[in-house]
Amino acid sequence: MFDTILIANRGEIACRVIETAQKMGVRCVAVYSDADAGAKHVAMADAAVHIGGSAPAQSYLRGDVIIQAALGTGAQAIHPGYGFLSENPEFVDAVEAAGLVFIGPSSSAIRAMGLKDAAKDLMAQAGVPVVPGYLGADQDAKVMATEAARIGYPVMIKARAGGGGKGMRLVENPADFADALTGAQREGQASFGDPVCLIEKYIQSPRHIEIQVFGDSHGNVVHMFERDCSLQRRHQKVIEEAPAPGMTDTLRAAMGKAAVDAAQAIGYQGAGTVEFIVDGSGGLRDDGFWFMEMNTRVQVEHTITEQITGVDIVREQLRIAAKLPLSYAQEHISYRGFALQFRVNAEDPKNDFLPSFGRISHYYAPGGPGVRVDTAIYTGYDIPPYFDSMCLKLVVWALTWEEAIARAERAIDDMRLHGIRTT
Fold first, then answer.
1. Catalytic residue positions, numbered
2. What is the SS3 assignment for 135?
3. Strand pairing of 47-52 and 358-359?
4. H-type helices in 24-88, by residue range?
5. Is 200:306 a contact under the CB 8 Å cutoff?
6. Three-class DSSP category at 119
7. What pLDDT does residue 229 have?
8. Which residues neighbour 261 within 8 Å (Cβ) at sequence distance 6 or greater?
9. Would the CA dihedral through 219, 220, 223, 224 be positive or negative?
10. Are 163 and 297 in contact, with CB atoms under 8 Å apart?
11. Which of 72, 158, 171, 274 lies at a C-alpha separation of 20 to 30 Å from 5?
12. What is the pTM of this model?
């Protein structure tokens, strides 16, 4: 196991990684921007290095500076958390070129899953179900319109390098296709430097169900069941739950196998999530799920998988990066009870959910059996305007779904967060 790791992130995920690593006896180095000099993750770490200005481009996206911070503090490995550089294959290559370990998958695995069209083609070759669509290189508007007609409306146009809902357009009428394509291409170029788009059949009663997977350097790949992330706003997840409502044993087994097959197809090592779009019309069925994408990192919603399985996902990440085998074989992994995660964002629900930044004048976190809060905020903390608006994650667990809902209602009612607007 490593003696020292550097966490190339901030906020609650940096705190989450530090918490587990220190329990394992691993020394932790934090990095911070001007805006985060007084941040919780800086206080928790064994050492901290200032890496630049407040904006991410001046700090948390400066891979060369982060690598130098790791080398200068004796860290042997870098944990990227999520966001920022976590799925940047060039950063992975640079980390390894510096003689350090990247706590995550290989750059080749990240590249394989980085472009939606290439990833879906690869998954189809591996026998993983994919949504009917067009993944061709010919981006001529007439060709694309012909393909959309072949697939059948409604269709979804997606920027192949997209994420977070950017570069996506739902088209229900052929007359609207050309304008929607132009808009998606323009947004793909502006947001990701890549205008290439793909077309998918739009599932009209969709469920977003994802499978947590792990692979190690010894050839072992397992799944840790599913999370339902269907409750979204503007293509951003808001509430997640595990296990998925209405899930059958046969569908769970089929989706678990597909996720493992997907990970094995790219020689995956580390924690990852295989996301599927599921037809929810008339109940879940074994032939009604299709590969959507793979996130090659720890997910924001990993907490609910931890709650139902008892597996510390960050601990397994560190073990795998240190070339140790997974702690669990598939037959040893089971789930118990029901868990839900609620993202509390610094946004104003009465003003179109615009960001709400400023000082937290009073914060009280709920507690008690089955209640978990992952956060980096505290009373007196200033929410900076440079980062994601999520303040905290409220996670609840109970033996039954009904008790989990009741526990969540009590926890939300008990929580106090004043000084800013929140969801």
1. 297
2. coil
3. unpaired
4. 40-44, 63-72
5. no
6. helix
7. 97
8. 126, 127, 128
9. negative
10. no
11. 274
12. 0.89
Return the bridge partners of 215, or none.
221, 270
Token pair in block for residue 180: 């929607």
The per-residue pLDDT for 117 is 79
Give the amino acid at 220: N
Lookup: tokens for 176: 């609207």
Q: Which residues contact 26 (CB under 8 A, 6 or more apart)?
A: 1, 2, 3, 4, 5, 318
Q: Say which residues have a Cβ less than 8 Å from residue 338's Cβ, sequence separation at least 6.
A: 241, 242, 243, 308, 397, 398, 399, 400, 401, 403, 404
Query: 254 in helix, strand or coil?
Result: helix
Tokens found for residue 375: 């956060």
pLDDT digits (tens, 9 = 90+) for 149-203: 999 999 999 999 877 678 999 999 999 999 999 999 999 999 889 999 999 999 8
Specify the pairing of strand 4-7 against strand 77-79.
parallel
pLDDT given at position 419: 97
pLDDT value for 179: 96
- Cα 248 to Cα 256: distance, rounded to the nearest angstrom: 12
φ and ψ at residue 37, rounded to 5 degrees: -60, -35
Which residues in the chain show pLDDT less than 70? 164
* pLDDT given at position 158: 93
Write the DSSP symbol of residue 298: -
**Entry field: residues in the chain:** 423
